[in-house]
Amino acid sequence: xxxxxxxxxxxxxxxxxxxxxxxxxxxxxxxxxxxxxxxxxxxxxxxxxxxxxxxxxxxxxxxxxxxxxxxxxxxxxxxxxxxxxxxxxxxxxxxxxxxxxxxxxxxxxxxxxxxxxxxxxxxxxxxxxxxxxxxxxxxxxxxxxxxxxxxxxxxxxxxxxxxxxxxxxxxxxxxxxx
Length: 178
Prior knowledge:
Helix content: over 70%
């Protein structure tokens, strides 16, 4: 009876076999050996792929760094150019203002000189006209005086004495007027 009961007993009540005799152990052992053998070439391939990717990333970073440095250099160059252009523009504006001021002063001086010349010319013309008027008035006065003297002398002196007196007065008047 004991034997039949032993055959009929559950596996849970049976004595456990040592772990190295269990098929699960050998499956697990085979799995780890296969993983270990496969891991070496896979790890090499994975490492080389990661190294290649790291090199590509490093190359991209180097390119990006170089582009950044180039951009910084270009920015600095353009900033220098802009500063130089602003300085030149300020110099041009200052020069234009100085030139405008100089031209304004020159125009004022030229106008003043022109007005002085015109005033001088006007004064000369006035003086000439005045001298001409004085000369004309003198000539008229001399003619009137001469005619009056001639008339008085003709009426009161004999003809011979009057003629010689008139000739002397004309000579004397010509000398005094010149």
